[in-house]
Each structure stands twice: as C-alpha cells, then as structure tokens.
Amino acid sequence: MPTRARTVTIKHVAAEAGVSLQTVSRVINDGPNVRDAVKERVREAITRLGYVPSIAARRMGGSRSYLLLALNDRDRTIEGWRSGDGTDWVDQMLLGGMLECAEHDYRMIFELVDTHSAHVEREISSALSALHPDGVILTPPHGDNPEITELLTSKGIPFARIGSTGEGPGFAISMDDSRAAAAATEHLLGLGHHRIGFITGSEEYALSAARLDGYRAAVRAGGAVERPDLVAPGDFTFASGLAATRRLLALPEPPTAILASSDQMALAALEVARGAGLDVPGDLSIVSFDDTPIVKFSAPSLTAIRQPIAAMTARAAELLIRATTGEAVGDEPSVLPFDLIVRGSTAPPRR
Amino acid sequence: MPTRARTVTIKHVAAEAGVSLQTVSRVINDGPNVRDAVKERVREAITRLGYVPSIAARRMGGSRSYLLLALNDRDRTIEGWRSGDGTDWVDQMLLGGMLECAEHDYRMIFELVDTHSAHVEREISSALSALHPDGVILTPPHGDNPEITELLTSKGIPFARIGSTGEGPGFAISMDDSRAAAAATEHLLGLGHHRIGFITGSEEYALSAARLDGYRAAVRAGGAVERPDLVAPGDFTFASGLAATRRLLALPEPPTAILASSDQMALAALEVARGAGLDVPGDLSIVSFDDTPIVKFSAPSLTAIRQPIAAMTARAAELLIRATTGEAVGDEPSVLPFDLIVRGSTAPPRR
DNA sequence: CTGTTAGCGCCTTCAC
DNA sequence: GTGAAGGCGCTAACAG
C-alpha cells in the first residue's frame, strides 16, 4: 500500500529545517529577525518538500486571506454571456486582475451581484463573510452605488471603484471619460463635421455624464452646432441605440456623425444607417465608445475609444494588495490613458 | 463610538438560539439528529444575525472547501485575451461553471496553467496546496495531459475533463466532436458538395482527431471524394488557417467547401478566398467549428458548429460537487449536444 | 534572533 | 437528540 500523500504543512518544514514552526512562518512572510543562514535553511526545506501555505489556514491564523473579490453587475454580465455579443469586459478584467494577483501570490475571485436587488447588501455581506477577501474590486455601476460603498466602508474592507471618479472612499480608478469623449468629438470635428450627434449611456453610470460633458465641451470649443436634440438618450443596449439613432436621423437637420456611448449602440447606429440607405462613413460617420472585438469585424469596422479595462483592473488589484500589506498608498484617483482607434467608420462629411 | 462590526460566528448563532455550537453546525450542514423545532430556531437565529459560515474555517474544520478550481491553458487564454479576437470560451465557462457553483454554495476559482511547461506539476500542486479545492475542472488540452491527470488521481482529487473523451480517470465531458464534424460535412454534402476540404486542429487536442474521423466517415458515407490532400493540417490559429486554405485552394481540383476546426481558421479561409477573388459561399462554402461571437459578424456570417461550453462546464461542476458530497455518481462519459448553426457562408456549389 | 503559548471558526469523534 | 473535547494549519503576541 502506497504511502498516503499527506499534505505538507508548516510543521513538516519546521522539522525538516530543524527550527520552530514560527521561524518558518517568519520566513514565508518575509518577517524580520531571522538570520540569513536559518532563512536559507528553511527556504531549502520548503523547496525540498514542495511546501505551499494553505490559504485557509493563513486566514484562520488571523492574517490576510490572499483573496480579492471582483464584483460585476449580474444581469448585464450574464446577458452579455448569453447573447454572445462578443463583449470582452470580463476577459479584460481577468487578464488584468488575475495576472496582477498572481504576481503577488493572490487570487481574484469573480462574483456577480445585482445592483438593483433589494438584497445587494445581503448578497455582498454573504460573500464577504464566506470569503473574507482582503479587498474588493467594484466595476460599474457598483462603484457608484452608495449602498455598496458604505457597506464596504463600514466593514473596513479596502475597495476599488473602476470607472468611477467620485470622491468618496475607496480607490477611484478610471479613464478620463470626459477627455475620451472630447477626443472622439475632436476627431470628428477635425474631419469637418459640424452636426455631431451623441447617444448617451445609462444615467446610472457616472461615466455617462462625464462622456456627455466631454462631447459638449468639444462641440462648443470646436464651434460646431450645439443643439439639445443632437443628444439622444440610450442605455448602452442595442435596442436603445436603434431608437436613439432613428431619432437623430429623423431630425430636420440630421447629424453627419454620431458618437455612441457603447459598442452595441454604435452597431445599432450602423444598422439604422444602412437601413436608411446611408453610406457609412460617406453619409454618416460613427464612433463607438467601446473597442470590443465585434466592432473590428463590422463593415465598415468602427472607429472607437478603447478603455484600458485590463490596466484599470490591474491597478485596482495592485492598490488593494498594497493597502493590505500596510504600504502607504495615496488615495488620489487613478486616471489611466485611453486610446482612440481610427478605423473605417469615420471620414469627412460629403456636404 | 459605533459598535465594532465583528464577524458573526457560529458561536453567536449558538448563543442566540440557545443551543450548542455543534447543533448549529448540524443545522447548516443538514446533519441528522436535530429536532425540527430546534432546527427552526437555529435557522431563525442564522437569518436574524445574517450568519454565513466562513469557507476558510470550514476547510480547517476538516470538511469541504467549497471551492472548485478551473484550469485553462495559460498561453492560449492570455493570447486570446490580448488579441481581443472575440473568443468567448472563458466567458462561456464562467457562465456555466459559476452559476452552477452558485447553486450549490460553491465558488469556482479560475486559474491558468502552462501545459507545456516543465513545472506543470509544481504549478498545479501549488494551487492545490494553497486552495485545497474539492474538485478540478480541466479544459483542453489539460484533460489529455497525463502528467496532470495522474497528479490529480494520485492526490485523490476529483476532476473533470472537458472536451476529453478518453477512458481514464475523472469525469469525461464532451460534445460528440466526431458526430459534429460529420453533421457539418453532411450539411455540405446535402448542399451538393463533393470535394470538401478539412482543416485539422492541433494534434495535441484529442478532439482534433475525433473531428477528422467524423469528417472522413461522412465523406465516405456520402460517396464524396476521399483524398488525403483534401485534409490540411492546422493548429487552430489564424495563421495556420491561412496556410492550410492556400494549400487546399492550390490543388488541381480544389474543394468547393471547407470545414475548419476553429473559428480563426475559418475566418482565415474566408480571407484567403476573398483574396483569391472567390465568392463565399458561391465559389466556396465555409463551415466553422466554433460559434464564437465574431463568426456572426463576418461577411458573410459563418455557418458553424456550436460547442456547449457553458453546459459542459456546468455539468463538470455538478458532477464534482456531487462526488464530493458523497453522492453516487456514475462515471460514464457525458456527451452533450452540439448545434449546427446555418448562416450565410454555405450554399450549393456553382458547378 | 528564536521559541512558546494562544487562539482563529469550524467539524469530527466521542460522550451524555 | 444534543453537548463537550480535540484538532485542522497558521499567525499574533509574548517570552526568552
């Protein structure tokens, strides 16, 4: 009968290195007060035995949990997955978050929470009680939900708000949505457009207002037409994009370019334009506010603002881990750079 | 000064319900030997206090960890995320796996592992030691890597192999790749094609062989042309798809239809065809073997086999959880249904 | 610098 | 049916 493959614990390492259990603990936690020689001996024992501390036991010991919890909006996320519309928000989050966590020997656990639900608080409390994460990453619109931020604050759990710029507690991490919208608008102005339509995002997202502001500022600065009816309300969805675009194109003097606050709405604009017999970009230029995979594959492919989702999530993870480690971390908002990717959907207006 | 928001533990619940700590444990674990009245009382206390057991403490107590570990291929996954080519494998996995886990009060932790690396074993051992998951979900090609399956087996950790059909240990969960390839081929035969090209997947994946078999069987059964040069090697990548397609189209008697083992290769086939001045589907029909978002947005959109990734992952999670619970679970391979989605890239051949 | 002593929150085993 | 010990692997606090 083969030897039972028992788990290697700190005790085994201690015995192997001929030191106390506590010394081993000090070594793996980079604690002070261990002679280099001993440290070395312990390290060798660790390698030899292939010892890896149990995350659960570590937590129990009263230290960190080495876990970060990332919270996304349930409905929107599941809807995105179900529809298979190619949004890669989650992938980019994982890319940035997981890799950063891995660097620090942390794990990121991804979870879905319904912002609107009456029991947001209960849902999140449960997750916190069960997991005891060292930090929480909030993505839009959670970062702007006071129920959530207050809960976290009261529990004393560090958190980061992605896509959220408000002052408040927690690390605010965003790209400059206002500047991005302005940059997109300037791109259109530079091409010679004067009537530029704008489709807003859901009001629930703070960044929607920021984008609108940026658009307005650029329009004004560029001396283009400022008219309220050039701004049509949307909520990021394809359907809302259809409605908004129809509305814009039905104006007596319709815009020659449209800036949409999401990829789905931009795609919708493209569809409406096509249905109306308009050539894109000849008759109508379109700019998308997400550079998700699909906008590269539409015909024409869309000029788009690219959000640094991976970078924002990585930053969030980094800040949270540093905060937990006790490192001094400034709480100035992090504003990460965006990209304007010019593709085939924008060109000078015909008239 | 506000009351310090201490964590609610099983002790508090016990006190609140006026029972022993142990009785509470019995209730939350559906243990036997608790009077309904008491059980009720405890449940109420739990609700009132908002108690949720700590996953870490549970593990330490010697029971389950309520964690499932999902292992993906590192390079391929990161490459997919970086390129933003719209593959939604990971999303579909999360959709199926996380939701199923949530049902059972489990968590799925997603991790990347390099199959080729010399230290696969070490990497995985570390993750296991740190997390102590109750089960592991292996995605291609990990499920076919004996180093990994043997390690898991020797450690006695239940695991599921997605996209893997081999006998071996662990739950085999797959779609019928062979049947799917046959179905796609039959679809083309039905349209009147006689020379059907096939681009294989990487040999490292067991399913690549299965697909080839299905194609061959259907070609033979359909009385179509069986020729070795109608089969071109690929490795799932766009680049390999370009090469394979050029090779097929350069044949003296080129195929009138191509079945590609991945979306990227199908897209590559489309590009080569276009570059060669061929009309798709007029001159060349193309079928993709992944129904990722982008193949819906190509022009024309691609007819494709849709893998039930979410369903497979959900099944994996379910089986693993049941196995841990001690429920009897058969170990017959699970074969889940696929779909053939007919779109604009397939039509009868012109000649 | 290093070892010893208490727990962390829960579950298992054994009494009652 | 229920409760009382004991310990899981680790770390914090305190000795030496």
Parts with pLDDT < 50 across at least 5 consecutive residues of chain A: none
Find the structural class of chain A using helix and strand composition: alpha/beta
Oligomeric grouping of the chains: homodimer
- The overall number of domains of chain A is 3
* Helix run count of chain A: 14
Largest interface: A-B, 55 and 55 residues
For the largest beta-sheet of chain A, the strand count, sense and barrel status come to: 6 strands, parallel
Order of helices and strands of chain A: HHHHEHHEHEHEEHEHEHEHEHEHEE
Q: On the 0-100 scale, what is the average pLDDT of chain A?
A: 93
DSSP strand (E) fraction of chain A? 5-15%
Strand order of the largest sheet of chain A: 2-1-3-4-5-11
CATH architecture name of the largest domain in chain A? 3-Layer(aba) Sandwich
The name of the CATH superfamily of the largest domain in chain A reads Response regulator
Described by the principal axes of the CA atoms, the overall outline of chain A is elongated
